[in-house]
Amino acid sequence: MEGRSKSNKHWAAAVSLIAASVMGMGSIQAKGVSDADIVQDAATANDVVSFGMGTQGQRYSALDKINTESVKDLVPVWSMSFGGEKQRGQESQPLIHDGVMFVTASYSRIFALDVKTGKKLWKYEHRLPDGIMPCCDVVNRGAALFGDLVIFGTLDAQLVALNRETGKVVWKEKVDDYHAGYSMTAAPIIVKGMVISGVSGGEFGVIGRVEARDALTGKMKWVRPVVEGHMGYTYGADGKAKDNGISGTTNATWPGDLWKTGGAATWAGATYDPETNLIFAGTGNPAPWNSHLRPGDNLFSSSTVAINPENGKIVWHYQTTPHDGWDYDGVNEFVSFDYVKDGKTIKAGGKADRNGFFFVLDRTNGKLLNAFPFVNKITWAKSIDLKTGRPVYDDANRPGDPTKGADGKKGEVVTSAPSFLGGKNQQQIAYNPKTGYFYVPANEWAMDIWNEPVSYKKGAAYLGAGFTIKALNEDYIGALRAVDPVTGKIVWENKNYAPLWGGVLTTAGNLAFYGTPEGYLKALDATTGKEVWSFQTGSGVVAPPVTWEQDGEQYIAVVSGWGGAVPLWGGDVAKRVNFLEQGGSVWVFKLHKS
């Protein structure tokens, strides 16, 4: 295939062997987009059929027609507005198949577009009820393709499967009660004919979980809660639930009944590694934020959990912030890669956590291989102990117990870094196997945070904390950083005045593409960090770019539309970037032909 080096051909062949192995495990074959297409997504250039541009989530393309030399000729081909008054944050990753782009938008909408012209083929607009409670804007991060279906989650906590040619509803399943704070914002993924999805709503005391449904029918296959003490289930052909073991051990790391409203929302979705046959899901903060109410590690919150797709059981877990008291969700994506050190290759995964540390784990068993800061200021912990795998806390930096305050209603205020919006939040990292670097959209900010008394009430915010977010530097908050997972060094950085909130794409053309809230889609030299191209999209970019090949030409696409959690929760930082304008559109680029 054009644009692929000899080594990449060998890599593609290896992926094909993995796909053949996966196919032999009894997975479902479907017309249209198959399991094999999805497993091989990272190695095929003419489509993008999975969130992450491959189930492992590397967001790497072997295409190199657009490279550090030719990128100067990159120009827009078309742009399509999502229209209407429904702007707000646009965090979607487009999917491309058979000359059609499928892209979701705010307020639970999805469009099918001709990839060459931008012509709208159909639109589905989910009818949302009054009273939805999205924590962090009315966003949607994308869809999944399987067979002749395109599947996405909605803000009223439903999964909807549409015929990808007509946009007509094929099946629709309620995931949970939006009145209780449940919603869905993540892109689902497909594993062996099953649609794998999580839930949003951790700030309302929901129960985080990962669910598997038959992708063709929507019928439940298994569900795995990620809060200790809750029962998992499998489902037979008759739809009846069968006990499948409690997650963890009841009350082992949660006191009393607090596990019953424990949070740990799986709101950023999951990745899948066919080599180990494991689903990796990140889990959010424990509820409430007031950690003094819930002594213990509070498993499996603020963690990565590895789940066997065959039976829905947790194979291993790694908790990045035990007994989280700062809202350091561990939902950030776990990206599979080969970790080469001292001549030894280990099947590993990398994760840039909200708490400011980058973690490298053995993806077969969850053992910690490396951990290091990817932001300049971390106050909640002094380091990660590489022997125990646990943080070395700075106990003076935990928000104070409100019952010990002067009036019993407010704990001691502490200044913590990073802020709860994280060293990295929903914006996706990328890994380039040619450079060996991860590309991390990082943010430098802090917060004043204090604890307050709180009790659970269905559908009400369940925080028990107050906060104010503030910038640490006058000249920048965001910085795209190239991180070496072996040495733990930041190789280069490119600073940005506003926070970075969109994902990264990296390519064999030695490029790293990413967007800024100021509206620019940028391309950097992946080796040096030097900016080599930029384009103003007209609104903030808080979504990940993608690339594919169509009729011998390489295309780049990105969604534009400022929003997300920063303007809603950002405090002083939100005021700092209030000049940014909302929008809602998708842009497509290719090289100009002279």
TrEMBL record:
Keyword Metal-binding: yes
Top EC category: oxidoreductase
Binding positions for Ca(2+) per the UniProt entry: E203, N285, D327
Annotated organism of origin: Denitromonas halophila
Protein name as annotated: PQQ-dependent dehydrogenase, methanol/ethanol family
GO cellular-component term (any): membrane
Active site positions: D327
A Pfam family that the UniProt record links to this protein: PQQ
A molecular function (GO) term: pyrroloquinoline quinone binding
Lineage: superkingdom: Bacteria
